[in-house]
């Protein structure tokens, strides 16, 4: 037999696998009590008729958030995204010069402390590539704006490039500094946080199917496009033209409960796995009450009333809602054993990722560890 002859292997899969993860959770802790001195107004600029203690207690009961993390004054989104990316690269063990795509999910660019101006030229991806000192010009860097589901959408895009033969290794990063775009006179400001997460996703040949199995994405924009938006401060005495992040919370809540569970079911059903195969569900950390209701409705679609214990890791209590960064930071922590004994991942586990956010966009991924 010629030494140049290679027998063709049967039943080989080109899997799309997460081979490394990294995250950055800022060190600055902001508790709910830190908002006690704030004066809150509603969207009609009317003072909220409740004591700060009542507001904070109700907020905690609904969202589950007790504290959140903010970046240092001198940090911006590209800085913390670079830290998460370096950790993911190190974890994967790859040569960064071999990365084909650098996909960065964010929403508000590099917004410096003391200004609301969003800076995204050059792109956040280009800035991070420079910070990583990747010289290869064929390592294409670009930004992805897809609301809170941005990191998952980045993985979905990376999978498409890999399946099309246009890439073998991709770096998907999510980074956000929501503390820079919040209105301190809006109760919703207590929800938001900062953070960054990243992963290396690669094509890996195997005789077993694993990694990304199925995906689903959707955008609802006719009635839903402006459920999250920018507007002036709720403070009636403010004359500043500066605009801040705002949301129609009730509409988002109802949208998520109606649309996310069936999307999750479609994604899982198309994978060929069943509801009892699912070991973990990584859901966007938006609001504990909303997330729990989404999971409950998802199981009810399978006529299951009993939800398995510890099926859904949660980090919102300590880290708040950092938009695109909630799932990758949580996944990194679980993957690296920070929730050992409660949340662990084992080879062959079936997990679901799902998110919903501005657009209104939603997506889901069935993944085999």
Give an account of the 3D structure.
The protein is an alpha/beta fold. The protein folds into two domains: 13-206, Peroxisomal Thiolase, Chain A, domain 1 (3-Layer(aba) Sandwich), CATH 3.40.47.10; 211-368, Thiolase/Chalcone synthase (Peroxisomal Thiolase, Chain A, domain 1), CATH 3.40.47. It contains eight helices and 13 strands. The strands form four sheets. The chain has a five-stranded mixed β-sheet, with helices on both faces. The longest helix has 23 residues, at 249-271. It starts with 12 loop residues before the first strand and ends with a strand. Mean pLDDT is 95; it is low at 1-8.
What is the H level of CATH, i.e. the homologous superfamily of the largest domain? Thiolase/Chalcone synthase
- Global morphology: globular
Secondary structure category? alpha/beta
Report the biggest beta sheet as strand number plus sense, adding barrel if it closes: 5 strands, mixed
Work out the helix count.
8
β-strand number? 13
SSE blueprint and pairings:
Layout: E1 13-24, E2 28-31, H1 52-63, E3 67-70, H2 77-92, E4 101-105, H3 124-132, E5 140-144, H4 150-163, E6 169-177, E7 194-206, E8 211-219, E9 228-232, E10 243-247, H5 249-271, E11 278-283, H6 288-300, H7 316-319, H8 326-335, E12 350-357, E13 361-368
Parallel strand pairs: 4-5, 4-6, 11-12
Antiparallel strand pairs: 1-7, 2-3, 6-7, 8-13, 9-10, 12-13
């Amino acid at each position: 037999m010629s030494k140049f002859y290679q027998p063709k292997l049967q039943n080989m899969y080109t899997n799309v696998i997460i081979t490394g993860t990294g995250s950055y959770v800022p060190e600055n802790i902001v508790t709910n009590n830190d908002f006690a001195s704030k004066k809150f107004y509603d969207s009609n600029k009317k003072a909220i008729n409740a004591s700060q203690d009542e507001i904070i207690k109700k907020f905690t009961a609904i969202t589950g958030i007790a504290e959140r993390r903010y970046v240092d004054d001198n940090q911006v989104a590209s800085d913390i995204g670079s830290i998460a990316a370096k950790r993911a690269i190190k974890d994967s063990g790859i040569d960064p010069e071999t990365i084909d795509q650098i996909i960065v999910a964010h929403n508000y660019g590099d917004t410096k402390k003391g200004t609301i101006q969003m800076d995204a030229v050059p792109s956040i991806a280009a800035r991070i590539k420079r910070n990583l000192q990747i010289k290869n010009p064929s390592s294409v860097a670009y930004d992805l704006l897809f609301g809170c589901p941005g990191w998952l959408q980045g993985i979905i895009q990376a999978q498409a490039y890999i399946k099309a033969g246009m890439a073998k290794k991709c770096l998907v990063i999510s980074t956000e500094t929501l503390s820079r775009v919040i209105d301190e006179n809006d109760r919703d400001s207590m929800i938001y946080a900062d953070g960054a997460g990243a992963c290396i996703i690669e094509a890996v040949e195997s005789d077993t199917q694993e990694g990304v199995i199925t995906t689903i994405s959707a955008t609802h924009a006719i009635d839903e496009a402006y459920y999250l938006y920018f507007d002036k401060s709720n403070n009636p005495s403010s004359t500043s033209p500066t605009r801040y992040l705002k949301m129609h919370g009730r509409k988002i809540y109802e949208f998520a409960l109606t649309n996310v569970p069936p999307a999750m079911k479609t994604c899982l059903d198309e994978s060929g796995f069943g509801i009892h195969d699912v070991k973990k569900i990584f859901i966007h950390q938006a609001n504990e009450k909303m997330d729990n209701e989404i999971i409950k409705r998802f199981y009810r679609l399978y006529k299951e009333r009993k939800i398995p214990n510890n099926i859904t890791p949660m980090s919102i209590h300590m880290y708040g809602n950092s938009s695109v960064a909630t799932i990758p930071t949580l996944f990194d922590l679980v993957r690296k054993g920070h929730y050992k004994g409660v949340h662990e991942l084992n080879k062959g586990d079936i997990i679901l990722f799902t998110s919903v956010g501005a657009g209104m966009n939603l997506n889901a991924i069935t993944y085999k560890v």
